[in-house]
Recover the amino acids of this structure.
């Protein structure tokens, strides 16, 4: 089954404690992205990757890091989480080309930073 | 800058009634428009992707129309069921942005009452 998986699904942490949210896709997609969803602000792109070892900032990259060492995985790293990073996070993947390609989203990770 | 708006933000209908969900966008130069469904704890599921050259796209009880000139798309759900209760989001790719970035509307939360 084609899918994007994220772990953990729920996470409560404290300010400053480093954490990693994993994302994996089984569709051999080149493109992967991270979005965060906040009430009143909708979904905003954090980082994206166009292939292995190729990553770039989205609209709200501050406080986040990513890596793309393997095609299937795209972890999101919060080195020193702060309460304003409390949000619902989604990983997405697709083939290149915006014209025809559907994007697939993971189930989301709900993060609470105390 | 493209802006995507969905009105109303919430909608409640009795079971069996047809649903009409609206999406408007400010820049008519779009590649395509995608409709998603978001269930609590289950992430985003792609429902329909309608290309800029298409006027409509159908899948089962779902029909999406696209009018680029007026900057509008409408998602019709026929004979609504309680299982259709969810938040529906529309999104368009950002033109010439790397990484298949999407601009999302704020969503319409739908409740279908038995």
């Amino acid at each position: 089954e084609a899918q994007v998986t994220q772990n953990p699904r729920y996470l409560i942490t404290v300010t400053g404690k480093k954490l990693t949210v994993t994302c994996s896709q089984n569709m051999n997609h080149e493109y992967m992205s991270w979005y965060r969803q906040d009430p009143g602000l909708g979904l905003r792109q954090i980082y994206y990757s166009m292939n292995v070892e190729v990553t770039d900032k989205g609209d709200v990259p501050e406080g986040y890091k990513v890596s793309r060492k393997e095609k299937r995985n795209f972890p999101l790293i919060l080195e020193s989480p702060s309460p304003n990073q409390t949000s619902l996070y989604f990983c997405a993947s697709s083939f290149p080309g915006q014209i025809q390609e559907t994007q697939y989203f993971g189930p989301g990770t709900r993060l609470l930073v105390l | 800058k493209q802006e995507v708006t969905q009105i109303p933000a919430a909608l409640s209908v009795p079971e069996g009634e047809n649903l009409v969900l609206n999406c408007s966008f400010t820049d008519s130069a779009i590649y395509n428009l995608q409709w998603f469904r978001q269930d609590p704890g289950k992430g985003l599921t792609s429902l329909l992707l309608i290309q800029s050259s298409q006027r409509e796209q159908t899948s089962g009880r779902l029909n999406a129309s696209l009018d680029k000139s007026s900057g509008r798309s409408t998602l019709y759900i026929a004979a609504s069921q309680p299982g259709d209760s969810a938040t529906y989001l529309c999104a368009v790719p950002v033109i010439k942005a790397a990484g298949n970035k999407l601009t999302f509307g704020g969503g319409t939360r739908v409740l279908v009452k038995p």
In short: Chain B has a mean pLDDT of 92.
